[in-house]
Amino acid sequence: MSKLEINQLDLFSGIGGFHLGFERAGYKVNSYFSxxxxxAVAVYKQQFKDSTYVGSVTDVRxxxxxxxxxITFGSPCxxxxxxxxxxxxxxxxxxxILEAIRLINECRPRAFVWENVKGTFSSNDGEDFAAIxxxxxxxxxxxxxxxxxxxxxxxxxxxxxxxxxxxxxxxKRNWRGVFPIGExxxxxxxxxxxxxxxxxxxxxxxxxxxxxxxxxxKQPPQEIKVKSATSKGYEDIEIGDIRYDEGGFxxxxxxxxxxxxxxxxxxxxxNCSILKDNNTYRIRRLTPIECERLQGFPDNHTEYGNYDGExxxxxxxxxxxxxxNAVTVDIVALVAEAVKPLFK
Length: 344
What we know:
By secondary structure, this protein is of the alpha/beta class. The protein folds into two domains: 4-195 and 299-343, 3-Layer(aba) Sandwich (Rossmann fold), CATH 3.40.50; 211-286, no CATH class. It has helices at 17-24, 38-47, 97-107, 127-139, 201-204, 288-294, 316-325, 329-338; strands at 4-11, 27-33, 52-53, 70-73, 111-117, 142-150, 160-168, 213-217, 224-227, 234-237, 242-245, 260-261, 269-277, 280-285, 304-307, 310-313. It has a seven-stranded mixed β-sheet, with helices on both faces. A five-stranded antiparallel β-sheet has the order 8-14-13-11-12. The chain is globular, with a radius of gyration of 20 Å.
């Protein structure tokens, strides 16, 4: 069966999670991507060599682009994040969603997909999300559907994100639509690049991980506290927990990232874990490859970047940051599969 060929405008593109997710679902993607982080741009160019870089979202104009079938965007979320200062739409970064809305109006794609943090629902008592919905509706000609989806359906991390899909009102009335998508969609799926839905992730990759251990003891720790942005100023953690750092990786000197949260289903990206090995309990940071796998990317997706034609090795700091800011490829592939009727 021939692949569906689409032109994608990939805004706030990061390292290409949306691009890769649609490819994994069977699309041939011609990508025009916008991003201002030079390291993310370099990774995107290295991994998707036929893509076209179009600069900052504020400079992109629909009239300068070919016909765009799909617009994807995970606009900056720090001002909506539960771990942030909750400035909402008044925040400088989160207000960039208005640039994406402008481009939807200018390009009139068949569909658009927006991903953002769970905190968008509650930001400013729900008024921000209502304002965003109204702005999408004001474009005219699109139906809107949205759902909270969780990376844990595919991979061993709790990472809840809103996925909103807009599609033409001219779509056939008998089409079932995109959502709801149930947790069972993540079971026995062939979309996943890695079969990592297991609690033994770290142990499985321990041999080649070269992790940085920061604590070791012969007896199970009775009480472990990790600094966190909570009212107490710390989180209690237990053996086997995988820890999460909302909004990326910001490791301290001792190797543990601040703002770590754990198995209480708060979202973020894994940074470290406590594991048991030969009756020794150790805390170590995850490796860049493990972080790529936990987001559904191929191994070493972020290892090299193309900087204006010069390929350079990426620092681990940048690799952690890029994985933390990325969308989960497996979840994108699930949404991409659901919207296929829109492109046939």
